[in-house]
Write a structure and sequence with these properties.
This protein is about 45% helix and about 15% strand.
Length: about 260
């Protein structure tokens, strides 16, 4: 898809020809991704439940010279996902860019298995797994029609690692990584690459609360990170840009761990 001259090896990492949909982009990792994609040249579609927070992100992107559109979306609701896909269809036709979907929407969850209730389980799987699957299902046809597209799912080190209180969350993230592989098998012949990004504990607002309120658990998790610190959202940006760009065109079905050595 990309014929990059040998004298410009970094050109394939640019996102000027990309329209990137980022779910869960109102805060945390999703916001950092959206703002970084915009700085690398992408037109960004901001999708999350909070219209006001999304508008703040859009304004931040605009202030840096980027372009973005806001679509309030609850990824646990299929009607919202379909509405998002309709907006994306219109934008792709107008912008004539390659389409990328980043399924970032999610929520942190830690609770002993014996205390997990049905609503906990349903919420986790509705947001993480159902949301990722149906966003992919509704938006992938726009990629397939053009024989090119990228889907990046947010997995986690908990897709392969375990810890007390993480059973339900581990199950959801393991589902994301396996879904990534399964969709890649189905859609690679149609030009759609599907990969996952799996960070370890990343310092967002909710993690800062965990560090402050549960220092014992924080220290135990930190002891498993070979590089000796928790990730910052900025630590994930390079990998996200790589997976969204033409530089990763021959990669599909993979879960890329950005974890400071947590899983080794």
């Amino acid at each position: 898809m990309n014929n990059i001259a040998n004298d410009n090896p970094l050109a394939s990492f640019r996102l000027d020809d990309r329209l990137i949909v980022v779910t869960g982009s109102s805060e945390g990792i999703g916001r950092v991704f959206a703002e970084s994609f915009a700085r690398a040249g992408a037109f960004v579609v901001l999708a999350s439940r909070r219209q006001d927070k999304l508008e703040a992100v859009r304004q931040s992107i605009a202030a840096s010279g980027g372009r973005a559109e806001v679509v309030a979306t609850d990824v646990s609701r299929l009607a919202d996902i379909r509405a998002l896909a309709q907006t994306v269809r219109r934008l792709v036709e107008r912008e004539a860019r390659h389409l990328v979907l980043v399924n970032n929407a999610g929520l942190r969850f830690t609770k002993p298995a014996l205390e997990v209730v049905e609503q906990d389980w349903d919420t986790l799987f509705d947001v993480h797994v159902k949301g990722a699957f149906f966003c992919a299902q509704q938006i992938a046809p726009l990629m397939i029609a053009r024989r090119y597209g990228k889907i990046i799912n947010l997995s986690s080190t908990w897709s392969v690692a375990t810890d007390a209180g993480k059973s339900a969350y581990c199950a959801a993230k393991a589902a994301i990584s396996h879904l990534t592989a399964a969709l890649s098998t189905e859609w690679a012949p149609l030009g759609v690459r599907v990969n996952a990004l799996a960070p370890s504990t990343t310092v967002t607002g909710s993690v800062q609360t965990m560090i402050a309120t549960n220092p014992e658990r924080s220290e135990r998790l930190l002891s498993r990170v070979k590089l000796g610190r928790f990730a910052q959202p900025s630590d994930l940006v390079g990998s996200a840009v790589f997976l969204a760009s033409g530089a990763s065109d021959f990669i599909t079905g993979q879960t890329l761990f950005v974890d400071g050595g947590f899983t080794t």
